[in-house]
């Protein structure tokens, strides 16, 4: 069981304030890596191996009785979904569409990962509402950028925290935890548009409005 | 052998793996994810890779042995192998997979068989190299030393 005492750096508060990420990837190796990357950034991670399992987890699978397939699962809180694009059966794109069709989950930021840097694919995903697109192999710098989406998303839905001070019960942010000290996790503003290379790409190709 | 010597040996060996193209920057990324609370992370991920690749290589052997080869399926397996080798930084395996996929697209059976042989060899090579590396690491730790931090400066 993961020990919260391991977490260093700035935290939002108690364990329930952790960013909860649902990671979807059919590759066992990639699931292990993404899980570790997210845990290093103090996220809670649920990793599943297919789009179908992801939908099941969210309570969106069609096999349940209609009243249950609107995605209401008691106590479930998912702040970010990160999914591989190429998966057998349901692709990450299909999963993205299903999530965006759901009134319960359409606000959750979805990030797509792919080993292939195919521009039309990236565009299609962004147009369907993906927040960002990561080219594999996934690195810590990729995931650090994502964490702001999860945090930003939750802050937009709730009241802003009263204080930006670190939780007094955990150890103060130290310089040795350079992983977290550079990106403040309590930031009242959503991630800057400039921070995402994908957004930058979109901005330079879009016409001025 | 004393710790300093072992550490120098580790550095030289690691450097050679990068120079010879067996490993790329992604491997270093994995090492950065390892810490005192997760001291076996790299070994665990690498083990998963070899379990995965073993199965994929078997599946590929069977798929290419069919009277009528399903190139889409072969490509799907190679794509998976390419992905996981890329995720652990096994560069030569990954590059082999890239060539393999091109041959699948061309539906070139002979080319695919040769490539399969090559991929198997590359997996075997990098497996041995990494096992040697991990053994060196164990020896260093057992002698009370620590693994040096490696940066790619070449």
Automatic annotation (TrEMBL), chain A:
Gene3D superfamilies in alphabetical order: 3.40.50.2300
Region feature (Disordered): 154-209
GO biological process, one term: cytokinin-activated signaling pathway
Any one Pfam family match given in the protein's UniProt record, by short name: Response_reg
Key words of the record: Phosphoprotein, Transcription, Transcription regulation, Two-component regulatory system
Residues covered by the Response regulatory domain: 20-151
Residues recorded with modification 4-aspartylphosphate: 84
PROSITE patterns, alphabetized: RESPONSE_REGULATORY
Stored SMART domains: REC (SM00448)
Compositional bias segments (type: Low complexity): 166-196
Name the UniProt record assigns to this protein: Response regulatory domain-containing protein
Source organism of this protein record: Arachis hypogaea (Peanut)
UniProtKB/TrEMBL annotation, chain B:
Gene designation: LOC107464716
Molecular-function GO term, any one: protein histidine kinase binding
Superkingdom of this protein's organism: Eukaryota
Span of the signal peptide: none
Domain HPt positions: 38-143
Keywords: Acetylation, Cytokinin signaling pathway, Cytoplasm, Nucleus, Phosphoprotein, Two-component regulatory system
Pfam families according to UniProt: Hpt
Domain description: Histidine-containing phosphotransfer domain (HPt) contains an active histidine that mediates the phosphotransfer.
Gene3D superfamilies linked to this entry: HPT domain
Name by which UniProt lists this protein: Histidine-containing phosphotransfer protein
GO BP annotations listed: cytokinin-activated signaling pathway; phosphorelay signal transduction system
Phosphohistidine carried by residues: 79
Subcellular location, principal: cytoplasm
Intracellular or extracellular location(s): Cytoplasm, Cytosol; Nucleus
Functional summary from the UniProt entry: Functions as a two-component phosphorelay mediators between cytokinin sensor histidine kinases and response regulators (B-type ARRs). Plays an important role in propagating cytokinin signal transduction.
GO cellular component: cytosol; nucleus
């Amino acid at each position: 069981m993961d020990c919260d005492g391991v977490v260093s750096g700035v935290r939002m508060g108690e364990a329930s304030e952790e960013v909860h990420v649902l990671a979807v990837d059919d590759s066992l190796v990639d699931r292990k890596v993404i899980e570790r990357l997210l845990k290093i950034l103090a996220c809670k991670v649920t990793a599943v191996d297919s789009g179908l399992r992801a939908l099941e987890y969210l309570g969106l699978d069609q096999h349940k009785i209609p009243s249950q397939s609107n995605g209401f699962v008691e106590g479930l809180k998912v702040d970010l979904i990160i999914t591989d694009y190429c998966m057998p059966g349901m692709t990450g794109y299909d999963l993205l569409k299903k999530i965006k069709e759901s009134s319960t989950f359409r606000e959750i930021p979805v990030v797509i990962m792919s080993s292939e840097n195919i521009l039309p694919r990236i565009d299609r995903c962004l147009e369907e509402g993906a927040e960002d697109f990561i080219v594999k192999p996934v690195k810590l710098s990729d995931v650090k950028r994502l964490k702001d989406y999860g945090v930003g998303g939750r802050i937009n839905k709730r009241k802003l925290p009263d204080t930006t001070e670190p939780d007094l019960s955990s150890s103060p942010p130290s310089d040795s935890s350079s992983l977290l000290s550079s990106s403040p996790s309590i930031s009242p503003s959503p991630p800057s548009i400039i921070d995402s290379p994908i957004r930058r790409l979109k901005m330079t190709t879009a016409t001025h409005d | 052998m004393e710790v300093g010597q072992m550490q120098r040996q580790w550095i030289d060996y690691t450097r050679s793996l990068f120079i010879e193209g067996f490993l790329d920057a992604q491997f270093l990324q994995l090492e950065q994810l390892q810490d005192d609370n997760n001291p076996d992370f790299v070994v665990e991920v690498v083990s998963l890779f070899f379990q995965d690749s073993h199965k994929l290589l078997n599946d590929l052997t069977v798929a290419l042995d069919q009277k009528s080869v399903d190139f889409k399926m072969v490509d799907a397996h190679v794509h998976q192998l390419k992905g996981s080798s890329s995720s652990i930084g096994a560069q030569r395996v990954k590059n082999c997979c890239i060539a393999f996929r091109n041959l699948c697209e061309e539906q070139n059976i002979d080319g695919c068989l040769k490539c399969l042989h090559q991929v198997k060899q590359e997996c075997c090579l990098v497996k041995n190299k990494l096992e040697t590396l991990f053994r060196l690491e164990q020896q260093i730790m057992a002698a009370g030393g620590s693994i040096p931090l490696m940066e790619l400066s070449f």
